[in-house]
Design goal:
Layout lengths: L9 H8 L2 H24 L3 H8 L3 H8 L8 H10 L12
Helix pairs in contact: 3-4
């Protein structure tokens, strides 16, 4: 027996509501912040040490790790990745 879908998908709902891009951007930032924080913990890095490595302020690191703050510049993401010995990878995917 095949499954039938009733109604639209969650992606369709977000698209129809005009918020899909915003929701995806926030989700991506939350994942980045979570992964960055886990890696900092794994390496035993404090926020102060992370700021030193990034040549920025501790408050900037706090904003970077804030999962609700999705207004982070690309160069800040790159600095954060390099500070923990990683590379930032961006990709274009079809919509």
């Amino acid at each position: 027996m095949s499954e039938q879908r009733i109604g639209s998908s969650f992606d369709d709902f977000l698209q129809e509501a005009g918020i899909r891009g915003d929701v995806e951007r926030i989700a991506q930032k939350r994942v980045f912040a979570w992964r960055l924080e886990r890696e900092m913990e794994r390496q035993g890095l404090s926020k102060s040490e992370m700021a030193r490595r990034m040549q920025t302020s501790r408050s900037q690191v706090d904003r970077l790790l804030d999962p609700t703050n999705d207004r982070v510049q690309l160069d800040t993401l790159v600095k954060a990745a390099h500070a923990i010995g990683c590379e930032l990878k961006l990709d274009l995917l079809p919509a």
